[in-house]
Design a protein that fits this description.
The complex is a heterodimer of chains A (about 500) and B (about 475). By secondary structure, chain A is mainly alpha-helical. Chain A contains 18 helices and three strands. Chain A has one domain.
């Protein structure tokens, strides 16, 4: 690994003080949802499985925030524990982990709180919690074999839930085909990389081919063109909770981050595979956003938007500049929170009014004005509304991309513009049009209000005061790229392939 | 022409304000922040209870919004007095660095100068007046609170854009303007036409926003920051540009592109007549007064860049002139008052673009203010036009009659007929955009979406299921 200041404690025998607190907090983050999943699976609290599930995820959220706090108040040295294999350790906690854990815990908690009662029986709750626990665990490891297992473990509940949904057989089959392909490529590729590590001297063809197989796995799992079709299909066929939990944490982006960054053959920077992936991701981002404009139903809209935003993250991850990488991380978080909110609002609407078409105005405003307000706020928060985190994310991503390559910047801009048009069209089609009711018919429940408000407040808070988050991500990004924090842009940036050579201004 | 030639408030200001430079700076900074914070606070105060399902009463809402705009107006007036004491030299208000990554600093900078402060005076004053009008006009309207929330959002965005001391802050204000404008066009969301108009307006805005977004990135690349202080030197309207002519030209052209959308310049003009679907007070303030001039304001703010970019100025003049001619022609055959006024606004916006392109900045600023005041009055009175007409006829004792001479009358009849047809078809602009760009793009995307769906349907079905479905289909065919 290229991390010079990495603290390695072999065999998990020496964690003390600061590190011990981190490990304990990590255990407190991952364990509650798994315990609650077991409890729900065994048929505990059959009448109200939501309460223990919400309590477990609240505990997870608090514990993950403790990790963030410990991390930011400590020396900010990457903690690596356990067995090392293929460049990764069993437990790997760095700035990215510290930021992503509370993000995922909040998303899972919001899903549990908003899920309509009829979708939340014991087995469904167990699947959501199991998936949540597994995803949280994944974000604290860099061990290739554990990542493979995690891919399987997180994909299974999604497939199961989709299959158990009436009319979800087709989507479950598509998902199963794609995930089988992804997991197979991931397994074979990782094993090939372990046998013949491309980051060591004397790199052979086996390791390099393995790297490309892993890249293919990431391509499929992230829904990048030409393997993107499962994304909107899953949103159409699965319960919204399943689709959101499967896509918003972006396990594949995390895998790409851990497996492709910092290898010696890349000069300590970004892997060639990731650069190729990023080009396809750029196309996917723009294509997904364009498709979202002509979607005929709300789920299709959310699915294609999620596909586009997820691709934007991968596109930014291949950036050579910390700014671009930072933009990708911010997009990861902002789009995850905003699209989760949008999806949950859509789900709440569907549970009251049935499937929502976008072909004709549905006139839902008078029926649920508060949901209309939340839909608009989350929609705008996903497309760069000022004072939200997505504004910061767009700014960094666009600036970074344009700094690096003209075509990348233009595709990112195209994606944001088209997504925005799709969101506004979606709002007007769902809530506009003649209404058959005089006043609000469906009140928003307290738990729904709390969850949606918490999600939106987080997006706004991080948007109004982004400096600590951006600083943390900048540090993490610089570490991954192997450059000092706040390094000036590499020579040549802003010249080759740019619109105009940068002029030196003397104020 | 510059502000030096205008009557000065300096004697009055020197009598009222302290001479100490530091103290004056603190006072001006506080006043500038107040101009921004006042409508923003109003937005939060009326928006949050509405979001929680407990909106204020109509009277309280109107009073709160009125207080917010009046406070901002008074603060702007006081700032104007303070600035006149110093010959309108710009006052930078640095509120801190929002975030910083490597060489990219996003700073929250505001600027009070001879352009921004008069503009805030005028815009907040107009918003306060429209607020008073709308309180009665929208009485018992189901979306009463929504209108005022959007008006407060618009006011916040407008002041943010006008007072912006950096391109990042300006872009944030610009975005608020676009969103509030779209939501007000679609205010009567139960009408299908209003929905279509809102989507069309937003699409145009968003496409043209690409210009401002890219210009912002270019500015960051050129000077390492979005601060106007590092981009321009000197006092508006005679500031100098601190970047190379090449960069100035590219950034200026991008800004012109951005301004075309908000200011409804050809070929991005067809959203404006449709935007009149919104309530009359919002039409007055958006499409008669403030929003339509937002593009012109940005160009005025970046006039130093235009000075260094003759090509951009030429493009600006051509776009403005063609829009003015087009809108003047089309406006003459409109059969409803609001559409006619929309085209009249477009004509004036075009002329303002020409003025900016020719370097007549102070004239352009005066043109904006006078046009905005007159046009909002006309739009606000438009629902009572028939009543006004009857009163006029009663006062005159008969039909006032139409003008006897028209410039079109000197043209040959065949040309007149052709011009009439062109005007009726709105210059074929809409048809060209619809048939040449939007239609084919939409059809292509729909086909792609259908193909995607067919692919996932095929993949999601087993061979056995497909064979069974085919057999059922065959049997149905036979039975028919």
């Amino acid at each position: 690994m290229m991390l010079a200041d990495t603290m390695t404690i072999a065999g998990m025998t020496e964690p003390e003080g600061h590190d011990l607190r981190l490990v304990l907090a990590l255990a407190a983050t991952v364990a509650p949802p798994l315990v609650a999943a077991f409890h729900a699976w065994r048929g505990g609290s059959p009448q109200s499985p939501r309460s223990p599930a919400a309590a477990a995820l609240t505990l997870s959220l608090v514990a993950s925030l403790v990790i963030t706090r410990i991390w930011m108040s400590g020396p900010e040295v990457t903690l690596e524990l356990g067995e090392r294999l293929g460049g990764g350790y069993l437990i790997h906690i760095d700035g990215i982990t510290a930021v992503l854990l509370p993000f995922v815990a909040l998303i899972e908690l919001a899903i549990i709180l908003v899920a309509p009662k009829r979708f939340l029986d014991g087995p469904a709750t167990a699947r959501i919690l199991w998936s949540a626990g597994a995803t949280l665990a994944v974000l604290a490891t860099a061990h290739p074999l554990v990542l493979i297992v995690a891919w399987i473990v997180t994909a299974l509940p999604t497939w199961w839930s989709t299959r158990a949904t009436p009319g979800g057989h087709s989507a479950a089959r598509v998902y199963a085909i794609m995930m089988t392909l992804a997991v197979t490529c991931m397994t074979v590729g990782t094993l090939m990389m372990i046998v013949d590590p491309p980051w060591e001297d004397g790199v052979g063809a086996v390791g390099t081919s393995g790297g490309w197989l892993v890249a293919l796995a990431v391509l499929v799992r992230k829904g990048i063109v030409p393997f993107h079709s499962w994304y909107p299909a899953l949103f159409r066929g699965a319960p919204m909770s399943t689709a959101l939990a499967a896509t918003m944490p972006q396990v594949a982006s995390y895998t790409a981050l851990r497996l492709f960054f910092g290898h010696a053959d890349h000069g300590g920077g970004v892997g060639t595979e990731l650069v190729v992936l990023s080009q396809l991701a750029l196309v996917t981002a723009a294509y997904g956003a364009a498709l979202s404009i002509v979607q005929r139903d709300l789920r299709g809209l959310i699915g294609t938007l999620a596909m586009s935003q997820s691709a934007l993250v991968l596109a930014g991850l291949a950036g050579q500049l910390p700014m671009e990488l930072n933009g990708a991380f911010c997009t990861w978080i902002s789009s995850g929170l905003a699209l989760t909110g949008l999806g949950l609002v859509g789900w709440a609407l569907e549970s009251r009014a049935g499937p929502l078409s976008l072909e004709t105005p549905q006139g839902r405003f008078a029926d649920a004005p508060l949901l209309a307000a939340f839909f608009l706020l989350f929609g705008l928060a996903s497309i760069g509304l000022p004072c939200t985190l997505s504004f910061v994310a767009d700014d960094l991503l666009v600036s970074g991309s344009l700094d690096e390559q003209l075509h990348a910047g233009l595709l990112v801009i195209a994606a944001t513009v088209l997504s925005a048009i799709a969101v506004m069209r979606g709002w007007f089609m769902v809530f506009g049009g003649p209404s058959t009711v005089d006043g609000p018919r469906h009140q928003v429940l307290l738990r729904e209000r709390v969850a949606l408000t918490a999600l939106f407040a987080t997006i706004v808070l991080l948007g109004l005061w982004p400096a600590p988050l951006v600083r943390e991500l900048d540090r993490a990004g610089s570490e991954l790229l192997g450059v000092p924090v706040n390094a000036p842009p590499p020579a040549g940036h802003g010249e080759a392939g740019s619109l105009v050579p940068p002029s030196v201004a003397a104020p | 022409m510059s502000f030096d030639s205008l009557p000065s408030f300096a004697p009055l200001a020197s009598a009222l304000l302290p001479a100490d430079e530091m103290l004056l700076h603190s006072i001006v900074s506080g006043l500038v922040v107040m101009q921004l914070a006042s409508p923003a606070l109003t937005l939060i105060v009326i928006g949050l209870p509405a979001l929680l399902g407990h909106p204020f009463s109509e009277r309280t809402t109107t009073r709160l919004v009125g207080t917010g705009f009046t406070t901002a107006f008074l603060a702007a007036l006081a700032t104007l007095l303070a600035l006149s004491l110093r010959g309108f030299s710009p006052e930078q208000v640095h509120l801190g660095t929002w975030f910083s990554v490597g060489h990219h600093d996003a700073t929250i900078d505001l600027v009070a100068d001879g352009l921004s402060v008069p503009y805030v005076c005028f815009s907040t004053g107009l918003c306060a007046l429209v607020n008073a009008f709308a309180g009665k006009y929208l009485h018992r309207e189901p979306g009463f609170t929504r209108f005022f929330v959007l008006l407060a959002l618009f006011g916040t965005g407008m002041n943010l854009m006008v007072l912006a001391g950096s391109i990042d802050v300006l872009f944030a204000g610009w975005e608020f303007l676009g969103i509030s404008s779209t939501m007000l066009v679609g205010f009567f969301h139960e009408r299908t036409n209003a929905l279509k108009a809102a989507i069309r307006a937003f699409t145009t805005y968003r496409i043209c926003d690409v210009g401002l977004l890219t210009a912002g990135v270019m500015i960051h690349r050129a000077v390492g920051s979005g601060d106007f202080e590092r981009l321009f030197a000197g006092v508006w309207p005679n500031a100098g540009c601190l970047v190379s002519p090449g960069t100035a030209t590219v950034v200026s052209l991008l800004l012109v592109f951005a301004a075309m959308g908000k200011s409804a310049q050809a070929p991005f003009s067809n959203w404006l007549p449709r935007a009149m679907e919104g309530p009359t007070p919002s039409s007055a303030i958006f499409y008669g007064a403030l929003s339509i001039h937002a593009g012109a304001y940005v160009l005025l703010r970046c006039e130093a860049l235009l000075d260094a970019a003759p090509l951009a100025r030429l493009v600006l003049v051509l776009i403005g002139a063609s829009t003015a001619i087009h809108a003047a022609l089309v406006g003459r055959v409109q059969t409803d008052l609001k559409s006619m006024l929309a085209y009249a606004s477009m004509t004036q916006a075009g002329i303002i673009f020409v003025e900016i392109g020719l370097g007549l900045r102070v004239i352009a600023l005066f043109h904006i203010v006078s046009h905005a005041i007159l046009r909002s009055l006309q739009i606000l009175r438009s629902p009572s036009a028939l009543h006004d007409r009857h009163e006029l006829e009663a006062a005159l004792g008969g039909h006032p009659g139409a003008a006897e001479w028209s410039v079109v009358g000197v043209l040959p009849p065949a040309v007149q007929r052709w011009l009439y047809r062109v005007a009726l078809e709105r210059g074929f602009e809409e048809m060209a955009v619809s048939r040449g760009v939007i239609g084919p793009a939409r059809r292509l995307l729909e086909r792609l979406a259908d193909a995607e769906r067919a692919w996932t349907d095929w993949l999601g079905t087993t061979a056995l299921d497909r064979a069974e479905a085919k057999a059922v289909e065959r049997l149905r065919g036979k039975s028919r």
